[in-house]
Amino acid sequence: MTLTRPARIGLRLVALGYLAVLLLLPVGLVFEKTFAQGLSAVWAAITTPAAVSAFWLTVEIALIAVVANTIFGVVCALVLVRGSGRGRWLLDVLIEVPFVISPVIVGLSLILVYGTTGWFGKWLVRHGITVIFNPLGMILATVFVSLPFVVREVVPVLREVGTEQEQAAATLGASPLQTFLRITLPSIRWGLAYGVVLSTARALGEFGAVLIVSGNIAGQTQTLPLLVDTRFYAFDNAGAYTAGALLAAISILVLLVMTATAPDKRRL
Amino acid sequence: MAISLHDVHKSFGDFKAVDGVSLEVPEGSLTALLGPSGSGKSTLLRLIAGLESPDRGEIAIGGDPALAIPPQRRGIGFVFQHYAAFKHMTVRNNVAFGLTVRRRPKAEIRERVDELLAIVGLSGYANRYPSQLSGGQRQRMALARALAVQPRVLLLDEPFGALDANVRAELRSWLRGLHDDLGVTTLIVTHDQEEAMEVADHVVILRSGKIEQSGPPRQVYQQPANDWVMGFLGPVSRIGDTLVRPHEVALAVEPDGDAVEAMVARVVHLGSQVRVELELAGGGEAHAQLTPTEADELEPERGDIVYLRHSRTPALRDQARISSGAGGA
Prior knowledge:
Strand content of chain B: 25-35%
Number of strands of chain A: 0
CATH superfamily of chain A: MetI-like
Distance between the termini of chain A: 16 Å
Radius of gyration of chain B: 24 Å
Structural class of chain B: alpha+beta
Number of helices of chain B: 10
Order of helices and strands of chain B: EEEHEEEHHHEHEHEEHHEEEEEEHEH
CATH superfamily of the largest domain in chain B: P-loop containing nucleotide triphosphate hydrolases
Oligomer: heterodimer
Shape of chain A: globular
Strand order of the largest sheet of chain B: 6-7-8-3-9-10
Largest sheet of chain B: 6 strands, mixed
Shape of chain B: elongated
Order of helices and strands of chain A: HHHHHHHHHHHHHH
CATH architecture of chain A: Orthogonal Bundle
Number of domains of chain A: 1
CATH architecture of the largest domain in chain B: 3-Layer(aba) Sandwich
Structural class of chain A: mainly alpha
Number of domains of chain B: 2
Helix content of chain A: over 70%
Largest interface: A-B, 17 and 27 residues
Largest sheet of chain A: none
Radius of gyration of chain A: 22 Å
CATH class of chain A: Mainly Alpha
CATH topology of the largest domain in chain B: Rossmann fold
Protein backbone atom coordinates (compact mmCIF):
# COMPACT_ATOMS: atom_id res chain seq x y z
CA MET A 1 0.00 0.00 0.00
CA THR A 2 1.38 3.38 -0.93
CA LEU A 3 0.38 6.43 1.02
CA THR A 4 0.58 10.12 0.23
CA ARG A 5 3.11 12.09 2.22
CA PRO A 6 0.57 13.91 4.44
CA ALA A 7 -1.14 10.60 5.18
CA ARG A 8 2.16 9.02 6.18
CA ILE A 9 3.03 11.90 8.49
CA GLY A 10 -0.47 11.85 9.93
CA LEU A 11 -0.29 8.13 10.71
CA ARG A 12 3.11 8.58 12.29
CA LEU A 13 1.80 11.37 14.50
CA VAL A 14 -1.16 9.28 15.62
CA ALA A 15 1.08 6.32 16.50
CA LEU A 16 3.63 8.44 18.33
CA GLY A 17 0.95 10.50 20.07
CA TYR A 18 -0.76 7.35 21.25
CA LEU A 19 2.48 5.99 22.64
CA ALA A 20 3.36 9.32 24.22
CA VAL A 21 0.10 9.81 26.04
CA LEU A 22 -0.44 6.25 27.19
CA LEU A 23 3.14 5.07 27.71
CA LEU A 24 5.89 7.64 27.79
CA LEU A 25 4.05 10.30 29.75
CA PRO A 26 2.99 8.19 32.76
CA VAL A 27 6.30 6.34 33.01
CA GLY A 28 8.21 9.55 32.49
CA LEU A 29 6.22 11.24 35.25
CA VAL A 30 7.18 8.50 37.69
CA PHE A 31 10.84 9.22 37.01
CA GLU A 32 10.21 12.96 37.14
CA LYS A 33 8.47 12.69 40.55
CA THR A 34 11.26 10.45 41.79
CA PHE A 35 14.15 12.66 40.91
CA ALA A 36 12.32 15.87 41.88
CA GLN A 37 13.08 14.86 45.48
CA GLY A 38 16.79 15.11 44.89
CA LEU A 39 19.32 12.33 44.58
CA SER A 40 19.99 11.91 48.29
CA ALA A 41 16.31 11.34 48.99
CA VAL A 42 16.17 8.79 46.17
CA TRP A 43 19.19 6.98 47.55
CA ALA A 44 17.70 7.00 51.05
CA ALA A 45 14.40 5.59 49.76
CA ILE A 46 15.96 2.70 47.89
CA THR A 47 18.40 1.75 50.61
CA THR A 48 15.91 1.22 53.41
CA PRO A 49 16.05 -2.41 54.63
CA ALA A 50 12.58 -3.04 53.23
CA ALA A 51 13.52 -1.70 49.81
CA VAL A 52 16.79 -3.63 49.62
CA SER A 53 15.02 -6.82 50.65
CA ALA A 54 12.23 -6.19 48.13
CA PHE A 55 14.73 -5.57 45.36
CA TRP A 56 16.62 -8.80 45.92
CA LEU A 57 13.49 -10.84 46.44
CA THR A 58 12.05 -9.50 43.18
CA VAL A 59 15.21 -10.30 41.28
CA GLU A 60 15.49 -13.75 42.84
CA ILE A 61 11.89 -14.72 42.11
CA ALA A 62 12.06 -13.38 38.56
CA LEU A 63 15.30 -15.24 37.91
CA ILE A 64 13.98 -18.59 39.12
CA ALA A 65 10.67 -18.16 37.32
CA VAL A 66 12.30 -17.14 34.06
CA VAL A 67 14.81 -19.99 34.11
CA ALA A 68 12.02 -22.47 34.87
CA ASN A 69 9.79 -21.06 32.15
CA THR A 70 12.58 -20.92 29.60
CA ILE A 71 13.35 -24.61 30.02
CA PHE A 72 9.68 -25.55 30.19
CA GLY A 73 8.87 -23.20 27.31
CA VAL A 74 11.42 -24.70 24.93
CA VAL A 75 10.44 -28.27 25.82
CA CYS A 76 6.79 -27.38 25.44
CA ALA A 77 7.33 -25.66 22.08
CA LEU A 78 9.23 -28.72 20.85
CA VAL A 79 6.36 -30.97 21.91
CA LEU A 80 3.81 -28.70 20.23
CA VAL A 81 5.67 -28.28 16.94
CA ARG A 82 7.71 -31.45 16.60
CA GLY A 83 5.56 -33.88 18.59
CA SER A 84 3.02 -36.23 17.11
CA GLY A 85 0.85 -36.90 20.16
CA ARG A 86 -2.89 -36.51 19.90
CA GLY A 87 -3.18 -34.46 23.11
CA ARG A 88 -1.16 -31.54 21.78
CA TRP A 89 -4.21 -29.34 21.26
CA LEU A 90 -4.95 -29.65 24.97
CA LEU A 91 -1.45 -28.50 25.87
CA ASP A 92 -1.86 -25.65 23.41
CA VAL A 93 -5.04 -24.51 25.14
CA LEU A 94 -3.65 -24.99 28.67
CA ILE A 95 -0.70 -22.75 27.94
CA GLU A 96 -3.08 -19.88 27.23
CA VAL A 97 -4.74 -20.20 30.63
CA PRO A 98 -2.41 -17.71 32.39
CA PHE A 99 -3.27 -15.16 29.70
CA VAL A 100 -7.00 -15.37 30.25
CA ILE A 101 -7.22 -15.88 34.00
CA SER A 102 -6.89 -12.89 36.30
CA PRO A 103 -3.73 -13.11 38.45
CA VAL A 104 -5.89 -12.68 41.53
CA ILE A 105 -7.59 -15.97 40.73
CA VAL A 106 -4.20 -17.58 40.25
CA GLY A 107 -3.25 -16.46 43.78
CA LEU A 108 -6.50 -17.74 45.25
CA SER A 109 -6.20 -21.09 43.51
CA LEU A 110 -2.67 -21.54 44.82
CA ILE A 111 -3.97 -21.00 48.35
CA LEU A 112 -6.68 -23.60 47.71
CA VAL A 113 -4.04 -26.12 46.65
CA TYR A 114 -1.07 -25.33 48.87
CA GLY A 115 -2.57 -23.42 51.82
CA THR A 116 -2.62 -25.08 55.25
CA THR A 117 -6.25 -26.07 54.68
CA GLY A 118 -5.70 -26.77 50.98
CA TRP A 119 -5.37 -30.09 49.11
CA PHE A 120 -1.69 -30.62 49.81
CA GLY A 121 -1.82 -28.50 52.97
CA LYS A 122 -1.67 -31.30 55.56
CA TRP A 123 1.08 -33.16 53.71
CA LEU A 124 3.13 -29.98 53.32
CA VAL A 125 2.71 -29.04 56.98
CA ARG A 126 3.80 -32.52 58.04
CA HIS A 127 6.96 -32.21 55.96
CA GLY A 128 7.68 -28.70 57.19
CA ILE A 129 7.22 -27.03 53.80
CA THR A 130 5.56 -23.64 53.77
CA VAL A 131 4.33 -22.49 50.40
CA ILE A 132 1.81 -19.80 51.13
CA PHE A 133 3.08 -16.55 52.73
CA ASN A 134 6.53 -17.72 51.74
CA PRO A 135 8.79 -17.02 48.71
CA LEU A 136 8.07 -20.54 47.40
CA GLY A 137 4.42 -19.65 46.81
CA MET A 138 5.45 -16.37 45.23
CA ILE A 139 7.71 -18.23 42.84
CA LEU A 140 4.86 -20.59 41.92
CA ALA A 141 2.56 -17.65 41.28
CA THR A 142 5.16 -15.88 39.16
CA VAL A 143 5.93 -19.01 37.15
CA PHE A 144 2.23 -19.40 36.51
CA VAL A 145 1.59 -15.90 35.20
CA SER A 146 4.75 -15.70 33.06
CA LEU A 147 4.50 -19.20 31.62
CA PRO A 148 3.10 -18.58 28.10
CA PHE A 149 5.63 -16.04 26.82
CA VAL A 150 8.56 -18.27 25.90
CA VAL A 151 6.28 -20.92 24.37
CA ARG A 152 4.34 -18.36 22.36
CA GLU A 153 7.49 -16.73 21.00
CA VAL A 154 9.35 -19.96 20.23
CA VAL A 155 6.54 -21.95 18.59
CA PRO A 156 6.23 -19.84 15.40
CA VAL A 157 10.00 -19.62 14.98
CA LEU A 158 10.38 -23.36 15.42
CA ARG A 159 7.62 -23.93 12.90
CA GLU A 160 9.21 -21.60 10.37
CA VAL A 161 12.69 -23.12 10.78
CA GLY A 162 11.34 -26.58 9.92
CA THR A 163 13.04 -29.91 10.45
CA GLU A 164 15.37 -30.09 7.45
CA GLN A 165 18.38 -28.58 9.19
CA GLU A 166 17.92 -31.00 12.09
CA GLN A 167 17.67 -33.94 9.69
CA ALA A 168 20.76 -32.74 7.85
CA ALA A 169 22.62 -32.59 11.16
CA ALA A 170 21.54 -36.14 11.96
CA THR A 171 22.75 -37.46 8.61
CA LEU A 172 26.07 -35.72 9.29
CA GLY A 173 26.48 -37.70 12.49
CA ALA A 174 25.19 -35.31 15.15
CA SER A 175 23.53 -36.90 18.18
CA PRO A 176 20.10 -35.57 19.17
CA LEU A 177 21.71 -33.49 21.92
CA GLN A 178 24.34 -32.10 19.54
CA THR A 179 21.63 -31.31 17.03
CA PHE A 180 19.60 -29.49 19.68
CA LEU A 181 22.53 -27.46 20.98
CA ARG A 182 24.18 -26.67 17.65
CA ILE A 183 21.22 -26.39 15.30
CA THR A 184 17.84 -26.05 17.00
CA LEU A 185 18.82 -23.67 19.80
CA PRO A 186 20.76 -21.23 17.60
CA SER A 187 17.90 -21.26 15.08
CA ILE A 188 15.35 -20.19 17.67
CA ARG A 189 17.59 -17.85 19.64
CA TRP A 190 15.87 -14.59 18.74
CA GLY A 191 12.41 -15.90 19.47
CA LEU A 192 13.72 -17.38 22.69
CA ALA A 193 15.44 -14.14 23.69
CA TYR A 194 12.28 -12.16 23.08
CA GLY A 195 10.23 -14.66 25.08
CA VAL A 196 12.71 -14.41 27.94
CA VAL A 197 12.48 -10.61 27.93
CA LEU A 198 8.69 -10.69 28.02
CA SER A 199 8.75 -13.33 30.77
CA THR A 200 11.23 -11.31 32.78
CA ALA A 201 9.19 -8.14 32.46
CA ARG A 202 6.05 -9.97 33.53
CA ALA A 203 7.81 -11.76 36.40
CA LEU A 204 9.33 -8.53 37.72
CA GLY A 205 6.08 -6.66 37.63
CA GLU A 206 3.61 -9.29 38.80
CA PHE A 207 1.37 -7.89 41.51
CA GLY A 208 -2.02 -9.54 41.98
CA ALA A 209 -1.12 -13.22 42.26
CA VAL A 210 1.97 -12.49 44.32
CA LEU A 211 0.07 -10.15 46.66
CA ILE A 212 -2.37 -12.88 47.61
CA VAL A 213 0.10 -15.71 48.22
CA SER A 214 2.81 -13.58 49.82
CA GLY A 215 1.06 -11.97 52.75
CA ASN A 216 3.12 -8.86 51.90
CA ILE A 217 5.41 -9.02 54.93
CA ALA A 218 8.00 -6.23 54.74
CA GLY A 219 11.56 -7.54 54.68
CA GLN A 220 10.35 -11.10 54.05
CA THR A 221 7.74 -11.58 51.36
CA GLN A 222 7.56 -8.13 49.86
CA THR A 223 8.60 -7.61 46.24
CA LEU A 224 9.07 -4.23 44.58
CA PRO A 225 5.53 -4.00 43.18
CA LEU A 226 4.17 -4.82 46.64
CA LEU A 227 6.49 -2.23 48.18
CA VAL A 228 5.18 0.42 45.77
CA ASP A 229 1.64 -0.44 46.76
CA THR A 230 2.39 -0.45 50.49
CA ARG A 231 4.19 2.88 50.40
CA PHE A 232 1.48 4.45 48.26
CA TYR A 233 -1.26 3.51 50.69
CA ALA A 234 0.89 4.66 53.60
CA PHE A 235 0.86 8.14 51.97
CA ASP A 236 4.58 7.81 51.25
CA ASN A 237 4.22 9.03 47.68
CA ALA A 238 7.87 9.86 47.22
CA GLY A 239 8.89 6.39 48.42
CA ALA A 240 6.32 4.78 46.13
CA TYR A 241 7.57 6.69 43.09
CA THR A 242 11.16 5.81 43.90
CA ALA A 243 10.42 2.10 44.20
CA GLY A 244 8.32 2.34 41.05
CA ALA A 245 11.11 4.05 39.14
CA LEU A 246 13.57 1.39 40.28
CA LEU A 247 11.24 -1.33 39.05
CA ALA A 248 10.67 0.40 35.72
CA ALA A 249 14.42 0.95 35.33
CA ILE A 250 15.16 -2.77 35.75
CA SER A 251 12.56 -3.69 33.14
CA ILE A 252 13.76 -1.08 30.67
CA LEU A 253 17.33 -2.26 31.20
CA VAL A 254 16.34 -5.84 30.33
CA LEU A 255 14.64 -4.61 27.17
CA LEU A 256 17.66 -2.49 26.17
CA VAL A 257 20.11 -5.34 26.68
CA MET A 258 17.93 -7.54 24.51
CA THR A 259 17.60 -4.93 21.74
CA ALA A 260 21.33 -4.25 21.77
CA THR A 261 22.30 -7.91 21.49
CA ALA A 262 19.78 -8.73 18.76
CA PRO A 263 20.67 -6.20 16.08
CA ASP A 264 19.52 -6.98 12.55
CA LYS A 265 16.92 -9.61 13.20
CA ARG A 266 14.13 -7.37 14.43
CA ARG A 267 14.71 -4.42 12.17
CA LEU A 268 11.56 -3.40 10.36
CA MET B 1 28.98 -49.26 -1.26
CA ALA B 2 26.14 -51.12 -2.88
CA ILE B 3 22.64 -50.50 -1.58
CA SER B 4 20.09 -53.25 -1.60
CA LEU B 5 16.39 -53.08 -0.80
CA HIS B 6 14.13 -56.04 -0.42
CA ASP B 7 10.32 -55.79 -0.46
CA VAL B 8 10.25 -52.41 1.29
CA HIS B 9 6.87 -50.98 2.32
CA LYS B 10 6.03 -47.62 3.84
CA SER B 11 2.61 -46.04 4.39
CA PHE B 12 1.60 -42.66 5.74
CA GLY B 13 -1.90 -43.21 7.07
CA ASP B 14 -3.85 -44.74 4.20
CA PHE B 15 -1.35 -43.59 1.60
CA LYS B 16 1.05 -46.26 0.42
CA ALA B 17 4.16 -44.22 -0.34
CA VAL B 18 6.39 -47.20 -1.03
CA ASP B 19 4.65 -50.42 -1.96
CA GLY B 20 6.95 -53.41 -2.11
CA VAL B 21 10.14 -52.10 -3.67
CA SER B 22 13.13 -54.36 -4.25
CA LEU B 23 16.20 -52.75 -5.73
CA GLU B 24 19.93 -53.28 -6.13
CA VAL B 25 22.12 -50.22 -6.51
CA PRO B 26 25.55 -51.34 -7.71
CA GLU B 27 28.63 -50.03 -5.97
CA GLY B 28 30.08 -46.90 -7.53
CA SER B 29 27.06 -46.27 -9.76
CA LEU B 30 25.07 -43.09 -10.19
CA THR B 31 21.46 -44.20 -10.08
CA ALA B 32 18.43 -41.98 -10.58
CA LEU B 33 15.09 -42.60 -8.86
CA LEU B 34 12.70 -41.08 -11.37
CA GLY B 35 8.98 -40.62 -11.00
CA PRO B 36 6.16 -38.08 -10.82
CA SER B 37 5.36 -36.43 -7.49
CA GLY B 38 3.78 -38.88 -5.07
CA SER B 39 5.53 -41.84 -6.67
CA GLY B 40 7.46 -42.57 -3.47
CA LYS B 41 10.92 -41.73 -4.76
CA SER B 42 11.80 -39.27 -1.99
CA THR B 43 10.36 -41.57 0.67
CA LEU B 44 12.54 -44.35 -0.67
CA LEU B 45 15.61 -42.15 -0.34
CA ARG B 46 14.64 -41.12 3.20
CA LEU B 47 14.16 -44.78 4.11
CA ILE B 48 17.68 -45.56 2.94
CA ALA B 49 19.00 -42.58 4.93
CA GLY B 50 17.13 -43.68 8.05
CA LEU B 51 15.07 -40.47 8.20
CA GLU B 52 12.00 -42.72 7.94
CA SER B 53 11.52 -46.33 9.01
CA PRO B 54 9.90 -48.85 6.68
CA ASP B 55 6.75 -50.70 7.79
CA ARG B 56 8.43 -53.84 6.57
CA GLY B 57 11.20 -55.01 4.28
CA GLU B 58 14.99 -55.03 4.38
CA ILE B 59 17.54 -52.39 3.56
CA ALA B 60 21.26 -53.13 3.40
CA ILE B 61 24.16 -50.79 2.75
CA GLY B 62 27.43 -52.40 1.73
CA GLY B 63 25.93 -55.79 2.53
CA ASP B 64 25.17 -54.90 6.17
CA PRO B 65 21.55 -54.65 7.36
CA ALA B 66 20.96 -50.93 7.91
CA LEU B 67 17.57 -50.75 9.60
CA ALA B 68 18.83 -51.08 13.17
CA ILE B 69 21.38 -48.33 12.57
CA PRO B 70 20.34 -44.70 13.18
CA PRO B 71 20.96 -42.14 10.40
CA GLN B 72 23.97 -40.80 12.32
CA ARG B 73 25.90 -44.02 11.80
CA ARG B 74 24.69 -45.22 8.41
CA GLY B 75 27.62 -43.66 6.60
CA ILE B 76 25.41 -41.66 4.27
CA GLY B 77 25.61 -38.18 2.89
CA PHE B 78 22.24 -36.54 2.27
CA VAL B 79 21.54 -33.48 0.16
CA PHE B 80 18.12 -31.83 0.45
CA GLN B 81 16.14 -30.06 -2.26
CA HIS B 82 16.07 -26.81 -0.28
CA TYR B 83 19.71 -27.13 0.77
CA ALA B 84 19.03 -27.38 4.54
CA ALA B 85 21.90 -24.95 5.02
CA PHE B 86 22.72 -24.15 8.64
CA LYS B 87 21.76 -20.51 8.39
CA HIS B 88 23.54 -19.34 11.52
CA MET B 89 26.90 -20.81 10.46
CA THR B 90 29.46 -19.68 7.91
CA VAL B 91 30.10 -21.79 4.83
CA ARG B 92 33.25 -23.11 6.53
CA ASN B 93 31.35 -24.20 9.65
CA ASN B 94 28.58 -25.71 7.55
CA VAL B 95 31.02 -27.89 5.67
CA ALA B 96 32.96 -28.67 8.86
CA PHE B 97 29.85 -29.68 10.81
CA GLY B 98 30.13 -33.45 10.41
CA LEU B 99 33.80 -33.37 11.39
CA THR B 100 33.18 -30.98 14.29
CA VAL B 101 30.57 -33.22 15.89
CA ARG B 102 33.04 -36.09 15.50
CA ARG B 103 35.53 -33.99 17.49
CA ARG B 104 38.31 -34.21 14.91
CA PRO B 105 41.44 -32.11 15.41
CA LYS B 106 41.01 -28.47 14.33
CA ALA B 107 43.90 -28.56 11.86
CA GLU B 108 42.56 -31.64 10.15
CA ILE B 109 39.09 -30.07 9.86
CA ARG B 110 40.50 -26.87 8.39
CA GLU B 111 42.52 -28.76 5.82
CA ARG B 112 39.66 -31.03 4.82
CA VAL B 113 37.20 -28.14 4.51
CA ASP B 114 39.60 -26.16 2.33
CA GLU B 115 40.03 -29.19 0.11
CA LEU B 116 36.25 -29.69 -0.23
CA LEU B 117 35.56 -26.02 -0.87
CA ALA B 118 38.09 -26.18 -3.68
CA ILE B 119 36.36 -29.26 -5.11
CA VAL B 120 32.96 -27.55 -5.18
CA GLY B 121 34.40 -24.25 -6.33
CA LEU B 122 33.63 -22.20 -3.23
CA SER B 123 37.15 -21.50 -2.02
CA GLY B 124 36.65 -17.76 -1.71
CA TYR B 125 33.37 -18.11 0.17
CA ALA B 126 34.46 -19.81 3.40
CA ASN B 127 33.52 -16.91 5.65
CA ARG B 128 30.21 -16.06 4.05
CA TYR B 129 26.83 -17.04 5.42
CA PRO B 130 24.43 -19.17 3.36
CA SER B 131 22.12 -16.16 2.90
CA GLN B 132 24.95 -14.48 0.97
CA LEU B 133 25.16 -17.32 -1.56
CA SER B 134 23.13 -18.04 -4.68
CA GLY B 135 20.96 -21.16 -4.82
CA GLY B 136 23.51 -23.05 -6.89
CA GLN B 137 26.31 -22.09 -4.49
CA ARG B 138 24.25 -23.17 -1.49
CA GLN B 139 23.63 -26.54 -3.06
CA ARG B 140 27.31 -27.00 -3.80
CA MET B 141 28.03 -26.09 -0.17
CA ALA B 142 25.49 -28.70 0.94
CA LEU B 143 27.21 -31.26 -1.26
CA ALA B 144 30.62 -30.41 0.20
CA ARG B 145 29.10 -30.72 3.68
CA ALA B 146 27.74 -34.16 2.85
CA LEU B 147 31.05 -35.27 1.34
CA ALA B 148 33.09 -34.04 4.33
CA VAL B 149 32.25 -37.10 6.41
CA GLN B 150 33.34 -39.41 3.58
CA PRO B 151 29.98 -41.13 3.17
CA ARG B 152 29.74 -44.65 1.81
CA VAL B 153 26.73 -43.57 -0.23
CA LEU B 154 25.52 -40.18 -1.35
CA LEU B 155 21.77 -39.54 -1.40
CA LEU B 156 20.48 -36.51 -3.30
CA ASP B 157 16.82 -35.54 -2.93
CA GLU B 158 15.82 -33.40 -5.95
CA PRO B 159 19.08 -31.50 -5.48
CA PHE B 160 18.54 -29.13 -8.39
CA GLY B 161 14.75 -28.83 -8.12
CA ALA B 162 14.80 -25.35 -6.63
CA LEU B 163 17.27 -23.88 -9.13
CA ASP B 164 16.91 -21.95 -12.38
CA ALA B 165 17.00 -24.02 -15.56
CA ASN B 166 20.46 -22.87 -16.69
CA VAL B 167 22.04 -23.32 -13.24
CA ARG B 168 20.38 -26.72 -13.08
CA ALA B 169 21.89 -27.82 -16.38
CA GLU B 170 25.31 -26.57 -15.31
CA LEU B 171 25.20 -28.35 -11.95
CA ARG B 172 24.01 -31.59 -13.54
CA SER B 173 27.09 -32.00 -15.70
CA TRP B 174 29.24 -30.80 -12.81
CA LEU B 175 27.72 -33.49 -10.57
CA ARG B 176 28.35 -36.12 -13.21
CA GLY B 177 32.00 -35.08 -13.38
CA LEU B 178 32.29 -35.06 -9.60
CA HIS B 179 30.88 -38.55 -9.42
CA ASP B 180 33.31 -39.76 -12.05
CA ASP B 181 36.17 -38.32 -9.98
CA LEU B 182 35.06 -39.56 -6.55
CA GLY B 183 33.27 -42.77 -7.43
CA VAL B 184 30.92 -42.65 -4.42
CA THR B 185 27.76 -44.72 -4.92
CA THR B 186 25.14 -42.06 -5.57
CA LEU B 187 21.35 -42.12 -5.64
CA ILE B 188 19.62 -39.07 -7.03
CA VAL B 189 15.89 -38.46 -6.80
CA THR B 190 14.34 -36.43 -9.59
CA HIS B 191 11.03 -35.92 -11.37
CA ASP B 192 12.84 -34.57 -14.44
CA GLN B 193 13.38 -37.37 -16.98
CA GLU B 194 15.92 -35.31 -18.89
CA GLU B 195 17.96 -34.84 -15.73
CA ALA B 196 17.85 -38.57 -14.96
CA MET B 197 18.85 -39.44 -18.51
CA GLU B 198 21.72 -36.98 -18.56
CA VAL B 199 23.20 -37.64 -15.13
CA ALA B 200 22.60 -41.27 -14.27
CA ASP B 201 24.04 -44.50 -15.59
CA HIS B 202 21.04 -46.36 -14.23
CA VAL B 203 17.44 -45.18 -14.05
CA VAL B 204 14.75 -46.58 -11.76
CA ILE B 205 11.26 -45.45 -12.74
CA LEU B 206 8.70 -45.32 -9.96
CA ARG B 207 4.96 -44.92 -10.04
CA SER B 208 2.57 -45.11 -7.04
CA GLY B 209 5.25 -46.61 -4.81
CA LYS B 210 6.19 -49.38 -7.23
CA ILE B 211 9.05 -49.79 -9.68
CA GLU B 212 7.77 -49.70 -13.26
CA GLN B 213 11.10 -50.31 -14.92
CA SER B 214 14.80 -49.99 -14.31
CA GLY B 215 17.81 -50.03 -16.56
CA PRO B 216 20.34 -47.83 -18.34
CA PRO B 217 18.82 -44.56 -19.66
CA ARG B 218 19.10 -45.61 -23.29
CA GLN B 219 17.39 -48.92 -22.64
CA VAL B 220 14.42 -47.54 -20.70
CA TYR B 221 13.93 -44.82 -23.31
CA GLN B 222 14.13 -47.06 -26.33
CA GLN B 223 12.46 -50.11 -24.83
CA PRO B 224 9.89 -48.80 -22.36
CA ALA B 225 8.24 -51.60 -20.40
CA ASN B 226 4.77 -50.17 -20.95
CA ASP B 227 2.84 -47.22 -22.37
CA TRP B 228 2.96 -45.35 -19.07
CA VAL B 229 6.74 -45.44 -18.93
CA MET B 230 6.94 -44.40 -22.55
CA GLY B 231 4.62 -41.47 -21.97
CA PHE B 232 6.44 -40.47 -18.81
CA LEU B 233 9.86 -40.43 -20.45
CA GLY B 234 8.92 -38.07 -23.24
CA PRO B 235 6.17 -36.71 -25.50
CA VAL B 236 4.18 -39.34 -27.37
CA SER B 237 1.41 -39.46 -29.92
CA ARG B 238 -1.05 -42.27 -30.37
CA ILE B 239 -1.35 -43.55 -33.92
CA GLY B 240 -3.79 -46.39 -34.19
CA ASP B 241 -2.95 -48.77 -31.36
CA THR B 242 0.62 -47.71 -30.82
CA LEU B 243 2.38 -44.87 -29.05
CA VAL B 244 4.96 -43.08 -31.13
CA ARG B 245 7.60 -40.47 -30.32
CA PRO B 246 7.11 -37.24 -32.32
CA HIS B 247 10.52 -37.62 -33.97
CA GLU B 248 9.54 -41.14 -35.08
CA VAL B 249 6.46 -39.94 -36.94
CA ALA B 250 6.98 -39.93 -40.70
CA LEU B 251 4.71 -37.70 -42.79
CA ALA B 252 3.80 -38.19 -46.43
CA VAL B 253 1.47 -36.34 -48.81
CA GLU B 254 0.31 -39.52 -50.53
CA PRO B 255 -1.55 -42.38 -48.78
CA ASP B 256 0.73 -45.36 -48.25
CA GLY B 257 -0.52 -48.73 -46.99
CA ASP B 258 -1.54 -48.53 -43.33
CA ALA B 259 -0.62 -44.83 -42.93
CA VAL B 260 -3.13 -42.79 -40.93
CA GLU B 261 -4.81 -39.76 -42.44
CA ALA B 262 -4.57 -36.46 -40.57
CA MET B 263 -5.06 -32.75 -41.04
CA VAL B 264 -2.35 -30.23 -40.19
CA ALA B 265 -3.64 -28.00 -37.39
CA ARG B 266 -0.57 -25.88 -36.76
CA VAL B 267 3.07 -25.69 -37.81
CA VAL B 268 5.55 -24.35 -35.26
CA HIS B 269 9.09 -23.46 -36.33
CA LEU B 270 11.40 -23.95 -33.35
CA GLY B 271 14.73 -23.31 -35.08
CA SER B 272 16.47 -26.68 -35.02
CA GLN B 273 13.18 -28.51 -35.45
CA VAL B 274 9.68 -28.04 -36.75
CA ARG B 275 6.67 -29.24 -34.80
CA VAL B 276 3.61 -30.20 -36.81
CA GLU B 277 0.41 -30.49 -34.80
CA LEU B 278 -2.10 -32.84 -36.36
CA GLU B 279 -5.75 -33.78 -36.04
CA LEU B 280 -6.23 -37.47 -36.81
CA ALA B 281 -8.99 -38.48 -39.19
CA GLY B 282 -10.36 -41.01 -36.71
CA GLY B 283 -10.33 -38.40 -33.91
CA GLY B 284 -7.54 -37.54 -31.54
CA GLU B 285 -4.43 -35.45 -31.84
CA ALA B 286 -0.80 -36.16 -32.58
CA HIS B 287 2.29 -34.22 -33.31
CA ALA B 288 5.30 -34.85 -35.47
CA GLN B 289 8.76 -33.46 -35.06
CA LEU B 290 10.57 -32.79 -38.33
CA THR B 291 13.98 -31.47 -39.19
CA PRO B 292 13.94 -28.15 -41.08
CA THR B 293 15.08 -30.04 -44.19
CA GLU B 294 12.19 -32.49 -43.95
CA ALA B 295 9.80 -29.61 -43.39
CA ASP B 296 11.14 -27.76 -46.46
CA GLU B 297 10.53 -30.81 -48.64
CA LEU B 298 7.05 -31.39 -47.29
CA GLU B 299 5.99 -27.76 -46.78
CA PRO B 300 3.10 -28.63 -44.44
CA GLU B 301 0.53 -25.90 -44.03
CA ARG B 302 -2.53 -25.51 -41.89
CA GLY B 303 -5.42 -27.44 -43.41
CA ASP B 304 -3.25 -29.82 -45.49
CA ILE B 305 -4.12 -33.49 -45.47
CA VAL B 306 -1.11 -35.72 -44.69
CA TYR B 307 -0.52 -39.40 -43.99
CA LEU B 308 1.52 -40.53 -41.04
CA ARG B 309 3.18 -43.71 -40.00
CA HIS B 310 5.81 -44.96 -37.61
CA SER B 311 9.28 -44.42 -39.06
CA ARG B 312 10.75 -47.48 -37.28
CA THR B 313 9.70 -50.86 -38.64
CA PRO B 314 6.99 -52.64 -36.64
CA ALA B 315 9.21 -55.72 -36.36
CA LEU B 316 11.85 -53.76 -34.46
CA ARG B 317 9.27 -52.45 -32.05
CA ASP B 318 7.85 -55.85 -31.28
CA GLN B 319 11.31 -57.13 -30.54
CA ALA B 320 11.88 -54.25 -28.19
CA ARG B 321 8.70 -55.09 -26.31
CA ILE B 322 9.59 -58.72 -25.94
CA SER B 323 13.11 -58.05 -24.71
CA SER B 324 12.03 -55.46 -22.13
CA GLY B 325 9.23 -57.77 -20.98
CA ALA B 326 11.67 -60.63 -20.53
CA GLY B 327 14.21 -58.39 -18.85
CA GLY B 328 11.69 -57.67 -16.14
CA ALA B 329 11.02 -54.39 -14.36
